[in-house]
Amino acid sequence: MEKRGDGTSLYGTFIRLSWHASGTYSKADNSGGSNGGRMRFTPEAGWGANAGLKVARDALEPVKAKFPGLSYADLYTYAGVVAVEEAGGPIIPFATGRTDESDGKASPPDGRLPDADKGARIATITHVRDIFYRMGFNDQEIVALLGAHAMGRCHTDRSGYWGPWSNAENTFSNEYYRLLVEERWSPKVTHNGKPWTGPDQYEDASGQLMMLPSDIAMIADPEFKKWVELYAKDEDRFFNDFSKAFAKLLSLGVPFAATKPWYQFW
Questions:
Q1: Which of 23, 65, 123, 203 gives 118 a disulfide partner, CB atoms 3.0 to 4.6 angstroms apart?
Q2: Domain around 67
Q3: Average pLDDT value for residue range 168-197
């Protein structure tokens, strides 16, 4: 299992890499998405939303060297698929066929990836919907995709936020939803005995787990909350819905007419 420099797993980072490589898609003009593998170039490599993902891209270079015929676009998305499955999550339908651009000239404008906080809860809820609706997702799919927050953690040297969402950050489960529903989440005001100076976030009673404002939005909005409560009770349903939504995300904007299943590629 790959590790970050601080010893934490790269599972969550690989999922974030595949997510951010794909989440720039707009159904209005079929722009953005994972095809092209443009995150390795300016401007996408330097976007604030992609801070820290160079760690994951660098960790995948030995794989690219071993399989030079594999496009970066397929590699970055498949890394997320493998991370989910290796961490105990569902099987994700996946096919190769993405191609690589030679530069970042075709990158979409910055601002298409979701922010964790828009300053007010209603604004954050509206922003989340705007981002996902632009790609063609509905409320149920939004909540299912956010279940990936059970994996990994935030780092202050990247996003400014701190901490894991769950106590089992290397295990894919429905824990994210259970914690959202069952724990008491309060604004974080201290960190290691000192005043918290980072962006607004929430913590549980122990101070060891965190939620972002966009996470709390999932239980503040009635339409989102009903799916959170369902997934908190039914992990099988979550796995099934996540598998479909994640496969859809990774294929947005990809011309699959000439695509081969991954097992034929190898």
A1: 123
A2: 11-112+244-265
A3: 96
Q: Which residues pair with 31 in a beta bridge?
A: 26
Percent of the chain with pLDDT over 70: 93
d(CA 172, CA 183): 19
Tell me how far apart the alpha carbons of residues 27 and 230 are, in angstroms, rounded to a whole number.
28
CA atoms within 13 A on the CB side of 93: 11
When pLDDT is cut at 50, 70 and 90, the band that residue 265 belongs to is very low
The answer to the question of residue 2 being in a domain is no
Active site residues: 20, 165
Looking at the fold, whether 194 and 183 belong to one and the same domain comes out as: yes
Beta-carbon contacts of 2 under 8 Å, excluding residues fewer than 6 positions away, are: 9, 10, 14, 59
In this structure, the answer to whether residues 89 and 175 fall within a common structural domain is: no
pLDDT confidence tier of residue 168, bands split at 50, 70 and 90: very high
Long-range contacts of 156-159 (CB under 8 A, 24+ apart): 156/198, 157/52, 158/51, 158/52, 159/51, 159/52, 159/116
